[in-house]
Design goal:
Helices cover 25% and strands 32% of the residues. The protein has an eight-stranded mixed sheet with strand order 5-4-8-2-1-12-15-14, with no helix packed on it. The protein has a five-stranded mixed sheet with strand order 17-18-19-21-20, with helices on one face. Strands 24-26-27-34-33 form a five-stranded antiparallel sheet. The longest helix is centred in the middle third of the chain and has 24 residues, at 351-374. It is elongated. The two termini are 58 Å apart.
């Protein structure tokens, strides 16, 4: 997370609370002329695989929290698909200055438990595959561990009696599509230096009575108390890891949303709890409306102490420190962390390599929240902050690029401007170029079709191509180019089919048209000769003189007279001269000449001349409806 204070929204808590609760209540490159065009490439119907191999991990964790010793003692039974590699890797993300202790690794044999040899360097547990038994391609290990919990404001630690237990258990390593284990990253001091692999969890957690917990997996929750010890039972599916936040001082409230989702809010102060609820409910409503619903139905919003984690995301959890209330920073960073429920928990990436994906999308999400809650002016102000940050990135770090990894940044400042401001502006630029409707369709497609996947720029271009019905290379180009370049606009082509509306004078019922329309970067073109010859128009090619001439007779329907049911129609003889290398069209109608401008020049595709759709709308008053979801045109009107 980026610990930089944004002074974007300063508003009183009372007005904020009323506004948010009211919201919840009411809402529970250039075109060519005659030169040859590159053929449209068909979309690749086979979806790109996730960045990493899914080993279908299942965790059975049983652990005991010993508060006096600041220690977790536990076992992890990890079952997984055994890969065709010489080793299997497990990660420890505990701090190397206070490392996780691996006591033993065992595997249950046919008759008895056997010890498994391993190496451990405080970061990675490595086990030889040949030492493991497997059944039906799956293997299971038991790892006994002890995890010290630092005392202080760390991302895993205890302060003010609030236990922030994030990466407290051993985790199966990450295997890329080349069956190579990703090296467990070293901490950087900022950002999220982690590789995660998804897994299903069953957790038994023993802790002193009186603690209240918010955890990553609350699909099933049970509590059993014996004397002063409580055993908690939780289950969660498809989680990066299993995080817990608990305190004897927490005040908690579960809020059930209209879609059945339950959000658990926890804070040590009732006033803060009310503010967490107001923001959390409103942000969830905005994001669900814009991006779509999530399959996960249990989430948590937690306040930790001052001088701790600032703001971080963990599976299904949005965690903010008490410092966020200063300057109303909570209005930015809590919606940001909630956005990660969509952009990191649902749609995942290797944050350490491609952090612009989830951080850029989360910042764009905050813009939507801000605009919805506080109006266009506040939304524009936040957008201006992103623009300013992106400009500073271009000036201060011109040779970097958006897709550079966490460990390649020279400073926190470069990291901040790159992934947050630069990442946000990459999505804003796309939205401006393709329009709000198509952009939201793109985000909704990511939410639905790429759920559970780890993605990079290629996957985003794939999703965008499906939405625009044409091969697009937008994200790959822009994240690879140097920062001093301006964003390259999306470049795509598609060929919509053509249908005619019922009742038209060309065809009296919808029927597929042999020729297709053509669209490039959102500009629609229709074939001239194949289409207009159906109307009886005469199309004459004068290629050597650089123009095409169109002759047609248009019939204007008259009105009924007072004495007759017969309409008097009038006719107009038109001659249209269309330049092959220009966009000023000459119209001669009953010997009266005029000109008008079409937005783009005619283009020649495979020997057929195409004109912008605005030509047909102007000359023939056609009503043309582009059904982008079906990639079809419906032509109606005065045909």
């Amino acid at each position: 997370m980026k610990p930089i204070q944004r002074w974007s929204i300063i508003i009183s808590s009372i007005i904020l609370l009323i506004t948010a609760l009211l919201f919840y209540y009411f809402n529970a490159t250039k075109p060519t002329g005659s030169e040859e065009e590159e053929e449209l490439q068909p979309l690749n119907l086979e979806k790109l695989p996730s960045l990493q191999i899914d080993l279908h991990a299942h965790y059975q964790l049983e652990a005991t929290l010993l508060p006096q010793e600041r220690l977790i003692v536990g076992t992890a039974i990890i079952t997984f698909d055994l890969p065709p590699t010489s080793e299997v890797h497990f990660y420890s993300y505990a701090y190397e200055w206070q490392p996780m202790q691996i006591q033993k690794v065992t595997q249950q044999g046919k008759e008895k438990e056997k010890s498994i040899p391993f190496t451990y360097d405080k970061r990675t547990i490595q086990i030889q595959t040949k030492d493991l038994q497997q059944e039906d391609g799956r293997s299971s290990l038991t790892i006994a561990f002890k995890t010290p919990i630092p005392a202080g404001g760390t991302r895993m630690g205890v302060k003010d009696s609030i236990w922030l237990l994030t990466n407290w258990h051993p985790q199966l390593g990450v295997l890329d599509q080349q069956y190579l284990w990703k090296e467990r990253p070293r901490p950087r001091g900022f950002g999220d230096p982690f590789y995660y692999s998804r897994g299903d969890y069953e957790v038994l957690f023993h802790a002193p009575a009186g603690y209240h917990w918010v955890v990553s997996g609350m699909e099933e929750e049970e509590k059993q108390q014996q004397d002063q010890q409580v055993t908690w039972s939780w289950k969660g599916k498809e989680l990066h890891n299993f995080a817990l936040v608990g305190s004897p001082h927490f005040i908690m409230e579960d809020v059930r949303m209209e879609d059945g989702t339950v959000i658990r809010f926890a804070a040590s102060d009732p006033t803060h709890l009310a503010q967490l609820k107001a923001i959390g409910i409103a942000a969830y409503q905005v994001y669900t409306t814009e991006f779509g619903q999530l399959s996960t139905k249990h989430f948590g919003v937690i306040e930790t102490g001052s001088g701790t984690n600032y703001a971080i995301e963990h599976p299904n959890l949005a965690i903010v420190s008490r410092d966020m209330y200063a300057y109303d920073l909570i209005q930015h960073w809590l919606p940001h962390e909630i956005a990660h429920w969509w952009w990191y928990n649902n749609l995942s990436t290797w944050e350490i390599e491609h952090g612009w994906v989830d951080e850029g999308l989360a910042e764009f999400s905050v813009y939507l929240y801000t605009k919805q809650m506080f109006g266009e002016e506040q939304g524009h102000q936040l957008l201006k902050e992103y623009q300013d940050g992106h400009q500073r990135l271009m000036q201060l770090f011109p040779n970097g690029h958006l897709d550079q990894g966490l460990h390649s940044f020279s400073s926190h400042e470069q990291f901040d401007y790159t992934w947050y401001d630069g990442g946000a502006m990459l999505f804003f630029n796309l939205r401006e170029r393709i329009g709000e409707e198509e952009f939201l369709h793109f985000l909704q497609r990511l939410t639905k079709e790429y759920a559970g996947m780890y993605v990079d720029a290629r996957h985003l271009d794939e999703a965008l191509s499906e939405v625009l019905h044409g091969k697009v290379n937008y994200f790959q180009k822009n994240v690879a180019q140097a920062n001093h370049h301006h964003f390259v606009d999306p470049d795509w082509e598609t060929e919509p089919g053509i249908l005619f509306a019922p009742g038209s004078e060309i065809l009296h019922q919808p029927k597929a048209f042999t020729d297709h329309a053509y669209a490039k970067n959102g500009q629609l073109y229709l074939p001239l000769r194949p289409l207009l010859e159906l109307t009886g128009a005469e199309v004459n090619w004068h290629g050597e003189d650089g123009y095409v001439e169109l002759r047609d007779v248009l019939i204007d329907e008259g009105e009924l007279s007072d004495t007759s049911d017969t309409k008097r129609n009038s006719t107009r003889l038109i001659t249209v001269t269309i330049p092959l290398d220009g966009n000023v069209v000459t119209l001669k109608e009953n010997e009266v000449e005029s000109t008008f401008t079409i937005p783009m020049k005619a283009c020649n595709r495979n020997g057929t001349l195409y004109l912008p759709v605005q030509f047909y709308e102007t000359i023939y008053n056609w009503e043309i409806d582009w059904l982008k979801g079906e990639n079809q045109l419906i032509i109606g009107g005065d045909i």
